[in-house]
Design a protein that fits this description.
Elements lengths: L1 H23 L1 H27 L8 H15 L6 H11 L2 H6 L4 H31 L8 H27 L1 H4 L3 H14 L11 H9 L7 H7 L7 H33 L2
Helix pairs in contact: 1-6, 2-3, 2-6, 3-6, 4-7, 7-11, 7-12
């Protein structure tokens, strides 16, 4: 019981550190929020112009706007800065101190990310939701059961993104800098996850490629599920997410072990 209590206290402290690290730079947070609001409003008028020229069968105008705004809110939840943080510590040499701590680096980053996600969701996500209600009073048919199912799907998506970020960050052990990889990551995730628009609107040939990749579970799958537009079973979604996480974790462990050997070689 003491071990569990100690781990819980440690986790809470790390979550608090992550939350406070975002609160310190709250001015920057609000500047980013205003920039995001401007972008979303531009997208609103862009899609309104598109729908003036013709309708899209799968989605109404309200559906599209709700999808885009919800994708933005969910983006605040995901730990998308983990890889850049690892790259920074590798570049400065502080990664050695993180590795020597009694707490695993994955545990440190995971709990701190939870704190950051909580702050961004509460502040930025809350404001974006208010803007959504003002622009579009969307009626969402949501039961208690479906809400908790959505929460579980989103949690698994969070875990998938976390391990994917860890994998991208570990590449810094080989390249020192991940600037190019970060840019490539944002493009790949933005397109193949449904971050920019629903994947179902993609051309059939491109859609087949996307379906072979697991990135759609990041944005497209959770949003489609809560909008009640998904034609797949909840249990099948959870199984697919779990398998994807397991394979990603295995790949991360293999790359991480090899990266540690590289550090030993560099250190003599």
């Amino acid at each position: 019981m003491e071990t569990i209590s100690t781990k819980a206290k440690l986790g809470f402290k790390l979550i608090k550190i992550g939350f406070e690290s975002q609160y310190i730079y709250r001015l920057g947070t609000f500047l980013v929020f205003y920039l995001v609001c401007f972008t979303l409003i531009m997208q609103y008028f862009l899609w309104r112009a598109i729908y003036h020229s013709g309708d899209i069968k799968q989605y109404s105008f309200n559906d599209i706007i709700f999808y885009i705004f919800l994708a933005q809110i969910i983006s605040y939840v995901f730990p998308t800065d983990v890889s850049s943080k690892i790259a920074f510590h590798v570049r400065t040499g502080d990664i050695i101190h993180l590795l020597l701590k009694p707490v695993k680096i994955e545990t440190q980053l995971f709990y701190e990310s939870l704190g950051k996600s909580a702050y961004r969701l509460l502040i930025n996500g809350g404001f974006i939701f208010i803007v959504l209600l003002v622009l579009l009073p969307y009626k969402l048919e949501l039961t208690v059961l479906r809400f908790f199912q959505f929460a579980l799907i989103l949690l698994l998506s969070y875990v998938f993104v976390f391990f994917f970020e860890l994998l991208m960050g570990i590449i810094a052990f080989y390249t020192t800098s991940t600037w190019g990889i970060q840019s490539f990551k944002y493009v790949i995730v933005g397109i193949f996850s449904g971050r920019l628009m629903p994947i179902s609107l993609y051309p059939p040939v491109f859609r087949k490629i996307v379906d072979w990749l697991p990135f759609r579970i990041i944005y497209f799958t959770p949003i489609e599920f809560i909008m009640n537009k998904a034609n797949y079973d909840f249990c099948n979604v959870v199984k697919y997410q779990t398998v994807s996480i397991a394979l990603l974790l295995l790949l991360y462990v293999l790359v991480y072990r090899n990266a540690l050997k590289k550090i030993k070689v560099q250190g003599g």
